[in-house]
Design goal:
By secondary structure, the protein is an alpha+beta fold. A hairpin with a 6-residue loop joins strand 3 and strand 4. The protein is globular, with a radius of gyration of 15 Å. Helix content is about 30%, strand content about 40%. It has one domain: Alpha-D-Glucose-1,6-Bisphosphate, Chain A, domain 4 (2-Layer Sandwich). An 8-stranded antiparallel beta sheet has the order 1-2-8-7-6-5-4-3, with helices on one face. The chain has 4 helices and 8 strands. The longest helix has 23 residues. InterPro entries: ASHA1/2-like_C, START-like_dom_sf.
Length: about 160
Amino acid sequence: MNHPRATVTLPNDTQIQITRTFDAPPELVFKAWTTPEYVRRWWGSAEAPLVVCDIDLSVGGSWRYVSRDASGTELGWHGTCLELDPPLRMVSTEVFEGFPDAEAVNTLVLSADGDRTLMTVTVQHSSRENRDGHLNSGMEAGMQVVLERLDDVLEGLKIVSAP
């Protein structure tokens, strides 16, 4: 399957913006983005799958993901949901546990475009140094892979939810 690529832009010195279109309605994209059963299928990588995927989908609720590679190395991320307007918007904090002082705020916006969805994620960092560290971590290459995997999950959800 030919997957579209996400576009990464830098609106200012402390932000990363990611846009991508999915061939599914916002309701399905939001469901796949926020349901542990589905997140486990697309987030992370084949080499370091998620071994923890906890999501309390409520304002003030927390989330945490932990991936583990074949050597046993674990990487963790966590945050708190600040705003929630399903299926169109969610704002949450994100902390990569390897850099606990570099908390970011992620704003997910899903916009319907016919049967498709335009996803925009704005990552607000507290400093240019934190933003650049995020960019230089290999984030973009990994993100392209996981969003392709999300496409595959969405294809399965579309089949299940078809009338």
